[in-house]
Every structure is written in structure tokens, then in C-alpha cells.
Amino acid sequence: MELVLRRRYYPKGTNGRLTAAGAIVCFTIELPWENNQRNISCIPEGRYLLSRRFTEKRGDHIIVTNVRGRDSILFHPANDALKELRGCIAPVSVLTGEGLGGSSRKACEVLNNYVFSAEYLKEDVFLNITNDGKS
Fold first, then answer.
1. Phi, psi of 87, rounded to the nearest 5 degrees
2. What is the rounded CA–CA span in Å between residue 113 and residue 12?
3. CB count, 10 Å around CB of 33?
């Protein structure tokens, strides 16, 4: 399965629309682009393999693998990128501003269901991050 994340970059955050087979799964918020600097930047555009990971703190969640120069890039709930993210991606149900969104836990559940269902079917899940060309 291929998920496509089309981003728009702003000074206070990065907003995205995540789709599967052309249908919207959720929206996303991330930190602004700061040349892939650890803890202060969103990750570079590209194609990444997604995997399931379990920790006591977050339970089952999605990790983005093989990000050049980075590790531990997760999909996890957050509604304010600058206050709650350190390079990860937060699914949100609605975008409310630059790097801001709402109902993140609900959007995270929807995304996890997509990814974990494909994994159950023994299907690799890839994330293709692109610039939507608008800002």
C-alpha cells in the first residue's frame, strides 16, 4: 500500500493531506522545514517504509524507517507542532492553522487502522512525501 502525504510549508509549521488510493485518510501537522535538523525540522520529502512498533509509553504505533540522518520518527497524536513535536508527524482530523490541528487522537486511530490492516495482509506500507506546490 502507498500512502501519499502532500505538504504545504509555512514559517510556523508544515501542513499535509494524507491519502491512500486518492482518498483522504487524514490531515497532518509537522514542524517547519529546517534542513532536516534533528528535533526542529520535518523530515525530507521522499519515499519511506512504515512499520509497526510497540512501546510501553505509546502502545502500538507507526514508525517511519530509513530517514537519512534521523531516527525515531513516529506518527503520534499532537495538535500543535511547535509545542508537541520533535520531528515526528501528527495525524489530525482538521487543520486549524500553520502546524495546528484538532482531533489528533481520532485521526491517529484511523491511520493506525489503515496501516495495521495492510500489515495484517502481509502488505508493505510506504509513505511518499511530496510538496503540493502551494503555500
1. 110, -10
2. 29
3. 19
Largest CA distance in the chain: 40
Task: Report the alpha-carbon distance of residue 124 to residue 135 in Å, rounded.
Answer: 31
Q: For 61, phi and psi rounded to 5 degrees?
A: -155, 175
Condensed to tens digits (0 to 9), the pLDDT of residues 53-99 reads: 999 988 899 999 999 999 999 999 999 999 999 999 999 999 999 99
The fold adopted by the segment(s) 2-131 is: L,D-transpeptidase catalytic domain-like (2.40.440)
Query: For cell 492553522, what's the residue?
Result: 97
CB–CB of 101/94 below 8 Å? yes
Whole-number Å distance between alpha carbons of 96 and 75: 19
| CA distance linking residue 56 with residue 35, whole number of Å | 31
Nearest to 96 by CA among 19, 25, 13, 31: 13
